[in-house]
Amino acid sequence: MSVSRTDRKAPSETHSAGVRPLLLESAGLTLSGLLAEPADGPPRATVVAVHGGGMRAGYFDGQADADLSLLTLGARLGFTVLALDRPGYGRSAARIPDGMTLDEQAAVLSGALETIADGHPVGRGFLLLAHSYGGKLALTTAARTSGLLAVDVSGTGHRYGIEAAGRRRLRRHLEWEHNWGPLGLYPPGTFRAAEALVAPIPARESAEVAQWPQKFEELAPQITVPLRLTFAEYETWWRNEEPDIAEMTSHLTNAPVLRVERQPGAGHNISLGLAARSYHLRALAFFEECLQSAGDDSAAVRPRSAQGTAVA
Question: Which parts of the sequence belong to the AB hydrolase-1 domain (predicted)?
Answer without folding.
Answer: 47-268
